[in-house]
Each structure stands twice: as structure tokens, then as C-alpha cells.
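Dear colleagues,

I hope this message finds you well. In preparation for our joint manuscript, I am sending the Beta-phosphoglucomutase ([Clostridium] cellulosi) sequence together with its predicted structure, so that both groups work from identical material. I would be grateful if you could confirm receipt.
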Amino acid sequence: MKAVIFDLDGVIVSTDELQYRAWKHMADREGIPFNWEINNRLRGISRRDSLEIILENSSKTYDEQQKMELITFKNDYYVKLLDGLTQDNILPNVMELLKKLKSDGVKIAVGSGSKNAKKILDKTGLSNVFDAIVDGTEIKHSKPDPEVFLLAAAKLHEKPENCIVVEDAKAGIQAAKMANMIAVGVSDARNSELADYKVDDILEVVDIVRELS
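The corresponding C-alpha cells are as follows:
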């Protein structure tokens, strides 16, 4: 294994609370029921697909223009919330993991479907830590499509089969396997049958890389 590609939200940085608050802000305005159970269904998928899940509980029908307005309304609020991010939002043991991988000569990248990924990395002081960054502004297809991970591997100049993906969402695990990469599941992704490895502590990724190298 030559490289590790990380999803961002829920793997490197915790923005779950902010995502929840932004979608709930939109849903409350529209009178649509929304809770954490619904929010958990939105992990790893695009804004548009997330909106469609939320609208399942709406008594109102929305046309395409109205849907785009809802997405914009949610994202504008979310971006404002991101201004409050700091290094404290980096998840436990992440910095130690990244240091160990770099010490071992392993390339590291972010492969995120979020169009706000670069702002998140900037606010948490991680912008210059990774060898490559791919976000939602660079891809046409969201996970479970493998595009984001394949582009990250290309930026790292590594073959997909030499890359490990660390994901917290089932859609991300599926994308990793479709890209012919080793998939490591953390958080909710530990429930994915497709995950090659499932870890409780992200530091275990170091052992996996060394085992496979």
C-alpha cells in the first residue's frame, strides 16, 4: 500500500452537528419533520440526494427551481456555521495517525464529496497537511460512484489497487470497492458488509497499512 485516502466529514473532522443544524434550519422553515435518525441517512451522499430524503416527509411538492433554492438556503447557513470551526473539531487521534503515515512514507489524501471541504481544511489548519485534496467541486458523480477516489489516486500518482480508503459512510465504502481499493470502515461504515477492515480507533489504520505493505 502506497497511499491512504480519507473521507473528510466524520473521519478527519467532525461536522455532523453543523450539518444537522443546517438541514434542520431548512426543514423547520418548510415545516418538514427532521431528526437525527433522518440525518444519519444523509451520510456520504450528495446534497441533492440528501434533500430528496428530507422531502420524503414533506406534504408539499417542490419543482426543480424550488429544490435548488432549498439546497442554496441550507448551504449558505452551513457555510456560516463553518466559520466557527477550529482545530478542536479534528477528531481524536487523527493528527497522530497522519504523522505516523507520513513517517512511514505513505502518501495521504482527502477524497470528499463536500464542496466545502477546502474551507473545512482551512479552518481546522489542515490545508497543507495532505499530499492531495479532491472535493465536490472537482467531480461530476457523488459516492457511491468511485470518481472522487480515483481522482485522488491520480493526483497522488498511485494505482487504485495501491490505495486504502478510510470512510464513515456505507456509500463511501461502496465507492472504494468500486475503485478497486481497500476499504476501512469507521463509525457507521463499520456496519458495511463491503468493508475489508472495521476499526474502533482510527490509529489502527497504521497497522493495516503496515500489514498490507
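For the figure legend, we might mention the following. The first strand starts at residue 3 and ends at 6. The longest helix spans residues 64-82.

With kind regards,
E.M.
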